[in-house]
Write a structure and sequence with these properties.
160 residues, alpha/beta, 7-stranded mixed sheet, 7 helices
């Protein structure tokens, strides 16, 4: 479990993970309202070359960012059924070489949880602090897991 002292560190953790992403990856973000999921995505998208503002896609369901690889950022908070997740056609984004980052990722775990990077964000001891747990699941993440964790720890500690 990592500790992020403030939103800047949460963005830094997202940025540190970005270089480990490849086409077809799924990142499931799990955490309560305000836990820092979108803040994490801001760092990740910026590190992949995105220049547009990153906001939560709560009401639009998805935002697509012109990054390398392309990122589709989805928010499943308002969806009630697994079929609604299937209807978003995220497989198409993955098949076209994109990365899918899912807020409220627990809703997509039945579809993608066996081979995904799962990032859990929880409130910390004060308003700005967050606890961040990273779990690399599946064979495609096995080789990247150790380096990814090391990069995230360095970012959480505020080192370049």
């Amino acid at each position: 479990m990592l500790t992020s002292a403030d939103p800047a560190r949460t963005r830094a953790i997202g940025a540190a993970i970005a270089p480990f992403l490849v086409a077809g990856d799924v990142v499931l973000l799990v955490g309560s309202l305000g836990a820092g999921k979108t803040t994490f995505v801001q760092g990740l998208v910026a590190a992949l070359g995105g220049h547009e503002p990153v906001t939560s896609p709560t009401f639009t369901l998805a935002h697509r960012y012109r990054t390398a690889p392309p990122v589709t950022h989805v928010d499943l908070w308002r969806l009630d059924r697994l079929q609604e997740v299937v209807d978003l056609a995220l497989e198409e984004e993955l098949d076209e070489g994109g990365v899918v980052v899912v807020e409220w990722g627990e809703a997509a775990e039945p579809l993608y949880g066996a081979d995904a990077l799962v990032v859990r964000l929880e409130w910390g001891r004060c308003d700005e602090e967050r606890a961040v747990a990273i779990e690399a699941r599946g064979e495609s993440w096995a080789v990247r897991g150790a380096g990814l964790t090391k990069a995230a720890v360095t970012a959480a500690e505020g080192e370049a």
